[in-house]
Specification:
heterodimer, A: about 270 residues, mainly alpha, MetI-like fold, about 80% helix, about 0% strand, globular, B: about 325 residues, alpha/beta, D-Maltodextrin-Binding Protein, domain 2, six-stranded mixed sheet, five-stranded mixed sheet, 16 helices, about 50% helix
Chain lengths: ~270, ~325
């Protein structure tokens, strides 16, 4: 019962917070606080709502926003999947080989600092001009923070667990799978959260700079709306981005958290 | 119960403070430019410009303090001019509509979009015309015929940019649908596009001075002339826009701005060598290169084919509302067509 109350309370607090924010937005939009051109740069909720529907019906250049979302999600999933697999591979190998760990640690520290879009010129020369460039940038966005988290998780596994595992005859891959993975799950889950957010942002910024017209994504859509001064449409697209983010957060990541670390009592 | 009310109050306070911060800051920016420029004591002028040899006269205006001089002569007062380098016409459009920028320099296409969208500015001068061209590294591509329906990619700066519109114009001139090549476009910055073309990753690159000159020197690249002929060096490429508020509230400052641009354009046309010395530093070129690029540009305060461009953009759905006349686009003092 207590749990239920807590949930209702959380829901109510969030709902009130959001409603208050929206009311303030509407007040600012209608009061003309933003100068004469307020309507153009700070559209009212009604205008944004209309634009939201228009985005899906008319879209831009005769293509509905659905298509843009579909393209973005496809590239994102591809990049995310490759990034996560590589992150596990890198951190797994690092635990097996000391030399690999030394190099990997350096590589992660170096590349985590580089913004993906700054690598664009090099990536274009290597990969050519195709949607694969975006996938690469998504991989770059997710791989390093995720590897860092997983690696930290592996390093935080108590030595006694590892020795117990070794006593049972586990080594190499079986040690990784039998001891390191389960013991580091909370780090891995938080790595997934960070990785997902980084990938999503990396995707959008890459698409805003590098737009492949044959495979247009959400970033390109935002850029077009900005170029054409359709600010209501642009804000509506930001709302779409937030909604997708929330759906993934509560629809995918939370359930994973619930049936692993929370169920096992590793975190609250 | 008390606790609940407290929690509710916290929520609202938090929301108010969040939104409040943003609001206050932006409204401060709003009042900044306009009101002070109307204020007779200390006038300020916020100018936004972009990077490259097409904007060369602005470096002269900035270096020689031409606006400050002209304003002091006309009004007997000082003006503080702030120069902001921005990366796209869309950013400048937002800045002007928010009131934080009084005048800006950008491509003709975003300026026409801004005027017809009601951002609250008009074009007050032409600045420059440049050469543009569509370069390709594929010998099999000789005309649009070879590109339409193919998977060849055309690198250009942005969808809806002036380069994209040139492509549409050239297609229409050649008797094709102006949007026939839209799906072949890959949007990327000029230097990235040049790298992609030279490394063979993209088959075509539609670009402008100075990249077009660098690419014309490469032996394995050739030019598809339709684009070059569609919108040339004599046609308006970069324009200056000024907010209507500034134009109406401080006519002396507006005149000083127009006069300064004209003076700089005359200077650059009359003494290209001296001009190159001043501007090469800002553009990151050697003096010889800069001089070459300046001589290959056309600086003029008279617009050319501007209304034709706007009508074309409206007809081919680059903008939603068509301007009715040339006068809708520019202030009274601007000459040209």
């Amino acid at each position: 019962m207590d749990e239920k109350k807590r949930k209702i309370h959380a829901f109510a607090a969030r709902a009130i917070f959001i409603i208050a924010l929206l009311l303030i937005w509407e007040y600012v939009a209608r009061s003309g606080m933003m100068g004469e051109k307020s309507e153009l740069i700070f559209p009212s909720l009604e205008a944004i709502g209309d634009a939201f529907i228009r985005n899906f019906i008319q879209g831009y250049a005769g293509i509905s926003l659905w298509v843009y979302i579909g393209n973005s999600m496809r590239l994102l999933l591809e990049g995310l999947l490759i990034g996560i697999l590589l992150a596990f591979l890198l951190s797994g190998l690092s635990m097996v080989s000391q030399t690999f760990y030394d190099i990997c640690n350096l590589v992660i520290s170096v590349f985590d600092l580089l913004p993906g879009v700054a690598l664009l010129p090099v990536v274009i020369i290597i990969f050519g001009v195709k949607p694969g460039v975006i996938v690469f940038l998504v991989v770059h966005a997710v791989l390093w923070p995720m590897s860092r988290n997983v690696l930290d998780g592996f390093l935080a596994v108590p030595k006694i667990y590892v020795e117990a595992g070794m006593n049972m005859g586990l080594k190499g891959a079986s040690l990784l799978w039998g001891v390191y993975f389960p013991a580091a799950t909370s780090y891995i889950v938080s790595g997934l959260k960070v990785g997902w957010a980084r990938a999503w942002r990396g995707l959008l910024s890459a698409e805003m700079i590098f737009g492949v017209a044959s495979c247009p994504g959400i970033g390109l859509f935002i850029n077009q709306m900005r170029t054409n001064m359709n600010n209501a449409e642009m804000y509506a697209t930001l709302v779409v981005i937030i909604i997708i983010g929330l759906v993934v957060q509560y629809g995918v990541l939370s359930p994973i958290e619930n049936c692993t670390v929370k169920k096992w009592g590793m975190s609250k | 119960m008390k606790k609940k009310i407290l929690a509710l109050a916290t929520c609202i306070c938090l929301a108010v403070s969040l939104a409040g911060c943003g609001g206050k800051e932006e409204s401060r920016e709003t009042s900044g430019g306009q009101e002070e420029s109307a204020d007779k004591e200390a006038a300020t002028l916020n100018i936004a410009y972009q990077y490259g040899v097409a904007y060369a006269p602005l470096s002269i205006v900035k270096e020689q303090g031409l606006i400050e001089k002209a304003y002091e002569e006309a009004a007997g007062k000082k003006v503080t001019v702030t120069w902001n380098q921005m990366s796209s016409g869309a950013d400048i459009n937002t800045g002007i509509s928010a009131g934080s920028i009084d005048a800006g320099f950008m491509g003709a296409a975003p300026a026409i979009t801004g005027v017809t969208k009601g951002v609250g500015y008009k074009i007050f001068t032409n600045l420059s015309g440049q050469e543009h061209g569509l370069m390709t590294n594929d010998e099999n591509i000789q005309s649009f015929e070879d590109l339409i329906g193919s998977s060849n990619q055309i690198a250009l700066v942005n969808i809806g940019s002036i380069q994209h519109i040139m492509l549409a114009m050239a297609l229409e001139n050649a008797g094709y649908d102006p949007h026939a090549l839209d799906a072949n476009i890959v949007a990327m910055a000029h230097p990235d596009g040049m790298a992609a073309l030279e490394s063979g990753n993209a088959s075509c690159h539609l670009t402008s001075n100075p990249y077009i000159f660098k690419e014309r020197q490469e032996e394995n690249l050739h030019e598809i002339m339709d684009v070059t002929n569609a919108w040339g060096i004599d046609d308006t490429f970069i324009v200056g826009v000024a907010s209507e508020t500034m134009h109406d509230n401080d006519p002396e400052l507006y005149q000083a701005l127009c006069g300064a641009i004209e003076e700089a354009v005359d200077f650059i046309n009359g003494n290209p060598e001296e001009a190159a010395k001043i501007t090469c530093e800002f553009d990151g070129n050697s003096e010889e290169e800069e001089l070459e690029y300046i001589q290959k540009s056309k600086y003029s305060i008279e617009t050319s084919h501007l209304f034709e461009l706007a009508s074309f953009m409206a007809r081919t759905d680059f903008i939603e509302t068509a301007p009715e006349s040339y006068e809708d686009l520019v202030f009274d003092n601007v000459s040209g067509d």
